[in-house]
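Worked example

This section walks through a single chain of length 155. The input is the sequence exactly as stored; nothing has been trimmed or padded.
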Amino acid sequence: MEITAARIASIHYTLTDDEGRVIDQSSEDRPLHYFHGAGNIIPGLEKALAGHQAGDRLQVDVRPEEGYGVRNEALVQDLPRQAFQGVEKVEPGMQFEARTERGPLLVTVVEVDGDRVRIDGNHPLAGQTLHFDVSVLDVREATEDEKRAGRAATR
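Given that input, the structure is written out below as tokens.
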């Protein structure tokens, strides 16, 4: 059975950066199950998986435009420390949900310098080409509940 819209695919993957460092991977006992065609995974990987079937193995390079986007330097801002009222200690790596005119945005603290806090609203993988090594384990029809939800049922 091929991976097509409204089917559930189960995959193992390893994601690496341009230097070959592992960024993420599925664990051997917990493959990723996703509903194909619902945008549950990044577009470039979903497109590459279309038409594949159980037993297939593929290498996929996903450009930023079809991954986590191109970096937007306008999303990097310096804020006064008092913008973080109620937070005792602000440190690099901390994440906060910011309210924007477009809705909520997850921001990461990248630098703290005295009363200045630099935040970055880009996804940590924005601007990077992503390299996937993928094994397709299984493809099945989605259940009616999964079709209504637009995602694979948790197991």
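What to look for: Helices lie at 43-49, 144-149.
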